[in-house]
Amino acid sequence: MICYMKFSMNRVLNFFLFIVLFSLTACKTSSNFAFYLPNEENVIKTNIASEYYNIAKAYAELKKYDKAIEYYKLAMRDKNLKAGAYYQLGRMYALSKNWNEAEKVFLNLLKRDSENLALKKSLAYIFALNGKTKKSLEMYSRLFQDNPDDSEILVNYIAVLLSDNRIEEAQGQLLLLKQRFPDNSSIEKLQEKIFSDADKDSEKIDSSSTASDRPTPEKSAENLKEPDVSDPFPEYNTEF
Fold first, then answer.
1. Helix, strand, or coil here: 146?
2. Of the four, 13, 60, 74, 215, which is 20 to 30 A from 28 by CA?
3. Which pLDDT does position 45 carry in this prediction?
């Protein structure tokens, strides 16, 4: 009887050891196998890049654009997020008033999507703030010719004219805005701005300011007043 009990206990112990050894082997095999799962490394990279993108977005909402730039660059390492992150990178440069870098990004984006109207509007604005007023005004003029039903382009065109102190041209375009879009909410504000700037210009003339003191058509980015345009860098998901 005692021998039988010893035999039974040995069987139980052997069975228990077998289960433990099998579990350890299975874990090791599973671990080794997991390393070779197809596309797992890409999935991990994508998840990390997505986290970088979300962190960048959070910094952007806090207006910490320098940190947002840092994390959007990290998010660009993933090919699925690269285009969207690159657009957001351009926005961050613009919102932080780094016009040179913003211009580079939006020019590159337009090379990939040459018919994207939103990108063209943004670039026209960037040109204005980067001291390239002539280029900006030419671009706004072409954009409105190609999109005559887009009142936003005309409003922004007038805003850039006013920022460059081109009062008479702004008045002419405002008249067009009133004729084409009589219910536009920007008319009153632009009209007040024109009258205000015209008064200031008259004061300068009355005080016999020299020609060198008067505004010139092309100004440096540092001296150019920022145009009061409507949302030049919209937040949206972009695919190029």
1. helix
2. 13
3. 75
* Closest by CA position to 155, among listed 131, 135, 134, 180: 180
Tokens of 227: 């145009």
Tell me if 120 sits within 8 A of 110, measured CB to CB.
yes
Pair 184, 93: CB distance under 8 Å: no
Q: What is the DSSP letter of 227?
A: P
Nearest to 109 by CA among 98, 130, 123, 99: 123
CB 65 within 8 A of CB 90: no
User: Which three-class secondary structure state does DSSP give residue 92?
Assistant: helix
Residue indicated by tokens 């001291």: 131
Q: Can you read off the two tokens belonging to residue 32?
A: 């080794």
Task: Supply the pTM of this predicted model.
Answer: 0.70
Q: How far apart are CA 77 and CA 83, in angstroms?
A: 10
Dihedral, 13, 18, 21, 25 alpha carbons, nearest 10: -170
At residue 32, what is the residue type? N
For residue 229, give every residue at least 6 positions away whose Cβ sits within 8 Å of its Cβ, in sequence order, or none.
125, 155, 156, 159, 160
pLDDT in tens, 98-152: 999 999 999 999 999 999 999 999 999 999 999 999 999 999 999 999 999 999 9
User: Residues 4-42: pLDDT tens digits?
Assistant: 444 444 454 344 334 433 443 444 444 444 444 456 666
**Rounded CA separation 12/89 (Å):** 65
Q: Which residues contact 106 (CB under 8 A, 6 or more apart)?
A: 90, 94, 119, 122, 123, 126
The Cα–Cα gap between 194 and 158 comes to 10
Non-local (6+) Cβ contacts of 53 within 8 A are: 71, 72, 75, 81, 84, 85
